[in-house]
């Protein structure tokens, strides 16, 4: 037997010696290639088509399971298309109408003539079992696609690559796309179906008196303005050094993982701090006990109680932390594994520009652009919000009005382009005291600080400034307008 590879006679794809049919187009190749054919069930295909010819209701049932490309034989693909076209036009579906449509397409003899159409009736025991027949057809189609995905993975592994993690991610994606379409789900949808789904949700929201559109982060006025962080959102949090960027992001993570009515797993990517340092910060924030006092053990009994209470709330497996300055592809690999095993509600990246680009570039802006759009693509792929902390450049310091603007994002304008929401944290008090004390300014304030949470970009809603309080010693945002505090009170 000739073991040399050959090309498919149908689509020209490269074939393996043992194949007699192409897994891409389903057409046969040289008999010299051996006795193996990709998975298929001609009998199930015939019974599915026969049931569709017998009963109009069987057509709808079959279409919920399979589509034209799921049939192995090309002649069966054509017959499936003819039956569904007639059905959609409202025409009768029987031997006469199918025969006439095939004749108009000049395909009648090609599929086997009237005798083959008649045989479909004879080989179908009953139309009542169409769901079972179609499921077999569907499963065989999935197996053929898995073979295709496996061949793609072989090609990736045999080719040149810069990073093994990129190969792993692409391989997972090849398999995931195959499984994603299992059950006949299509990537594209008509506006009629999408609007129907949207109005179901709108009606539900009206009846319930309003509902959230995304994931709340525990700051009610912010949640009200945004409707929550939506799946697929890239949310950038930025501001000056010591403005509370990490505190804002981690407070959101805490709420999603612990305090929300429906807690979800949150993955925190921490490029700068150790895991212990991050945990101690959150313990201090939640207990309202200074981090240094916790580390030294200089605590009153009330403080000990507060620390243990806070630790009890924080001790949940939903908050996952990894210290890494890796690539987006590495984050994707970990995130997909968590999503498969326990579900994933949100990712927090405490330092977008500290991540590594997938490929080194001579221009830093291109590297940061690659990272930003990579995180956005990951958010869409996993259908979760990703909150990424980002530094500012020095542009706002030279202006009289020092409120940050989109152009102040460090190292790349692509960050603002990729993001669905850009949140700036701004404190007038910070700049006033910083200018008064010079560059060596050290904040030792025991008071609450007025803070503006500025929605500078909001793809699905209004841009807005939300005035809050920032409990700087304990790194916690309080959703209360500073103007409402009487007599300068700092009570929480």
Structure in a nutshell:
The protein has helices at residues 42-54, 56-65, 74-89, 95-104, 108-111, 113-122, 130-158, 164-180, 191-207, 220-226, 245-259, 275-287, 291-296, 301-314, 328-341, 364-382, 414-418, 428-437; strands at 234-239, 266-270, 319-323, 346-349, 386-391, 421-426, 449-458, 464-471, 476-478. It is of the alpha/beta class and 492 residues long. Among the domains are: 145-180; 213-488, P-loop containing nucleotide triphosphate hydrolases (Rossmann fold), CATH 3.40.50.300.
What does this structure look like?
A hairpin with a 4-residue loop joins strand 8 and strand 9. The N and C termini lie far apart (84 Å). The protein contains 18 helices and nine strands. The protein is elongated. It is of the alpha/beta class and 492 residues long. Strands 3-2-4-5-1-6-7-8-9 form a nine-stranded mixed sheet. Helix 1 (42-54) packs across helix 7. Among the domains are: 145-180; 213-488, P-loop containing nucleotide triphosphate hydrolases (Rossmann fold). The longest helix is centred in the N-terminal third of the chain and has 29 residues, at 130-158.
